[in-house]
Amino acid sequence: MPQDAAEIPEAALIAFPDTPASRLRRALRQLEVAINEQSEAVAAFRNQIGALGGAVAGLDARTQSFRSALAEAAQEADRARAASAELMATAALMEATARR
């Protein structure tokens, strides 16, 4: 006698017995995968730290260069101020001489 699809009971899944040894092997495989992933993440982190160190070193070099340029500009400004003061004094002397 044929049965309708509505009358067929659903199949039940039966799990195979899981032995302690197979659970341990599965856990060890998962642990090995996790350790490998962590090793890759640590290696990537170290590479990024190295890149950051290079960037900081480059920034330090540019900062030192900028400081040197600022110091040189300050010296040039001082020389220009001194030259300006000397020219002002010379102009004042010439003006005083011309008034006599």
What does this 3D model show about the protein?
The chain has one helix spanning 20-99. It is mainly α and 100 residues long. It has a domain at 31-99.
Distinctive features:
100 residues; mainly alpha; 80% helix; 0% strand
Summarize it.
With 100 residues, the protein is mainly alpha-helical. 80% of the residues lie in helices and 0% in strands. The protein has a domain at 31-99.
Structural class: mainly alpha
Overall mean confidence score, pLDDT: 91
Helix content estimate: over 70%
The tally of helices reads 1
Runs in which pLDDT lies below 50 for 5 or more consecutive residues are none
Distance between the termini: 142 Å
Largest sheet: none
Instruction: Give the CA-based shape.
Output: rod-shaped
Radius of gyration over C-alpha positions, nearest whole angstrom: 42 Å
Secondary-structure element string: H
Strand fraction band? under 5%
Beta strand count = 0
